[in-house]
Request: fold
Amino acid sequence: MKNSHHDIVIIGGGIIGGAIAYYCAKAGLDITVLEKNELASGTSSRCDGNILAIDKDPGFDSQMSLVSQRLVHELNRELDMSFEYRNPGSILVCESELEMEAAQQWVNRQQEAGLDFTMLDREDLRNESKYFADDLYGGLECKTDSTVNPYMLTFSMFHSAEKLGAKIKKHTEVKNIKKQPDDTFSLETNEGWITANKVINACGIWAPFIGQMLSVDIPIKPRKGHILVASRQEPVGLRKVMEFGYLISKFGGERKVDADIEKYGVALVFEPTEAQNFLIGSSREFVGFDTKVNHDVAKMIARRAVRFYPKIADMSIIRTYAGLRPWTEDHLPIICEVEEVPGFYIAAGHEGDGISLAAVTGKLIQELLQHKDSCIPTEPVHLSRFQKGVLHE
Ligand SMILES: Cc1cc2nc3c(=O)[nH]c(=O)nc-3n(C[C@H](O)[C@H](O)[C@H](O)COP(=O)(O)OP(=O)(O)OC[C@H]3O[C@@H](n4cnc5c(N)ncnc54)[C@H](O)[C@@H]3O)c2cc1C
Reply:
């Protein structure tokens, strides 16, 4: 690898790097991936696996998610390795009359935008799961939502990319990058120097460090989240459930909950896996790069889950983990070529939506590299929105 020249280098072997590698290799591009640890060793193995439109703002945000949902549906047929894909839809549940009114408005806005959303009443919830608390008012459903095993999808995309000719270098850390007078890039790694025509920064929460190497400011911060894994006992539910307050927590609004629940941004997220274990989340905090499990937060998540599913109180938790979402101020990713450094691309900052948006991100980067029409508008995800102060609302 030392002193070798490459056409396109992707830095980062998470789900975003995987999707870019797959779509670019499929389009015939010459791809080399550099990953400092193992594939999917970052946030992409410390998360849930939901591919959602239910929690997306109607408009650009939800349209981008729908494009990605369609692409993942196709990936399920295209890729060799299966990744536990299912698309049973998902639901949000409400615990007050006020939330039901807000849910109705959310459904109206989504339906106006052409999405498949419907309201659910108490009876619908009872039919959904006998484990739900009796006092829940109802909720809403998005029928297109799907779920995957996130690290299996990551491995699956890299596996197919490699078969299509992509070269994947694990345990290869990029330590510095320099732009050369001939417009190529020179990259210093623990395996020596290499050169490349184009460089794609798919480093999630570490993307700002790669940006600094080329004097590009990338405004991404790690936002911690915890997940509890409960063991397979009885099928508590067959699809993804979130409390309506999750939307408020995600977008930074005020909720009527205990101060601690609010402080750690705890809101119920319930996800059955293919093996019928279930994942219970989650929390949202800015505490730097610390991925240690905070047992007080884990207890709060369990308490919140029992509020919505009282009968799971006796079930066993088999593991708890925490991951760091790559957060941006307007909750949209950064996917673009950097104007000031031609040939340098960013694909990072997907916060809690990187699994949902990996496919559309990979496709878009391939289209940008090949100067093709893009599958989504590019302006809302351009880095320059932060410099111009025109953030998506
Ligand atoms: C608790 C939790 C729940 C979540 N649930 C969902 C969900 O249900 N649905 C959803 O859509 N999203 C979810 N997410 C968000 C999702 O996990 C992330 O958005 C996504 O994994 C980000 O992927 P990535 O490839 O950008 O980053 P990563 O997976 O972190 O990959 C970046 C890679 O870059 C490598 N790297 C960094 N620096 C260098 C370097 N200098 N040289 C070489 N390699 C380098 C790292 O080792 C890492 O492997 C959740 C996140 C959390 C924390």
